[in-house]
Design brief:
Elements: E1 8-14, H1 22-33, E2 40-44, H2 46-55, H3 60-67, E3 77-78, E4 84-87, H4 89-98, E5 111-117, E6 122-126, H5 131-138, E7 143-145, E8 148-150, E9 153-157, E10 173-179, H6 193-209, E11 218-220, H7 236-253
Parallel strand pairs: 1-2, 1-10, 2-5, 4-7, 10-11
Antiparallel strand pairs: 3-4, 5-6, 5-9, 8-9
Amino acid sequence: MITTAKKYKTGIVLSGGALRGFAHAGVLKALNEAGIFPDVVSGVSAGSIVGALYCDGFTPDEIYTIFVNKKLTKFLEFIVPNKGLVRLTGLYKTLLEKLQAKHFSELKIPLFVAVTNLNEATTEFISKGELTPYIIASSTVPIMFQPAVIDGITYVDGGILNNLPLEPIENDCELLIGVNINPIVPEKEFEGMMKVADRTVHMMISKINDHKIPRFDIYIEPTELHKHSPFDMSKGKEMQQIGYKATKRALKEKGY
């Protein structure tokens, strides 16, 4: 029987999850220490940010350092409410400053970024064109952040329709790794409207992702992340370590 070699040895899918994205840096660090170096990345929202930096040549520790000990307001610009409460102006400037690659084609490792086309109500997987605008588009949580408009199309957070975008790379990788940083665990109490809203959104996302989990060779979902708010910048170190330790456990279970 003749088998066709896959295009990539190892692919990784990085979910969204706002500041829980610190965990992605821990995941990548643990994988690299085990001799696993993804050679294609598909990411959304926080996963697209970490993915872009990794594909540009930054180490996991360097990615972590860019964001740790920063105030959330450093990355935001508060505006008169219109289609959103704030713009990701500071994040845009940070990425422009740090990323050597200005276009997808200049990245050292191929990257796919999931965005939600608000006009057509569809998911798009972007792998060509100018890099930073699509990363910002993929990260613009509706209502909270001002939507991104690129070439006349309005985009919002890719995680709205697809928070685990394995589709662009699913059939091209010998080893496929999925990372979900929005674990759903039993909760006894809910303090405030934001907690209820956050729980509701992530329940819906979880159900969309359920059928994808068996399609990964290695699936990493750091359950301890549920203790940390996706908007708590002060817990970056803890979240990075949670991602690191969860990956070590997952690799051990798979015999790595």
